[in-house]
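[Help] Beginner question about ligand-bound structures

Sorry if this is basic. My supervisor gave me a protein sequence and a SMILES string for zinc ion and asked me to "get the holo structure". I don't really know what that means in practice or what format the answer should be in. Inputs are pasted below exactly as I got them.
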Amino acid sequence: MDQVLRGSLITRHVKCGKPTCHCATGVGHASLYLSSFYHGKTQMDYVPVIWEQWVRTGLENYEVAQDILSELTELNLELLRRRDNG
Ligand SMILES: [Zn+2]
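Answer (accepted):
No worries, everyone starts somewhere. Holo just means with the ligand present. The predicted complex, written as structure tokens, is below.
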């Protein structure tokens, strides 16, 4: 499982700057960004539409990986405690 991403998807409304575009007077164009926290700071990466599903899968895989790590940790804690008591 190498397709792993940590972070969360957020939608931002961005105005493209064209004076004739509908967004000049209304809401900006909806753009998807991946917000992630690394090395002490939040990073924002633009997610093109064709990459959206890839990013979503990566985020889901991260959740799955975390669940696996939590379960392994629990099992190993159990082992450690039994060893201590024995
Ligand atoms: Zn626009």
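A couple of things worth pointing out: The CA atoms of residues 32 and 50 lie 11 Å apart. The pocket of zinc ion is lined by residues 15-16, 18, 21, 23, 29 (CB under 6 Å). Feel free to follow up in the thread.
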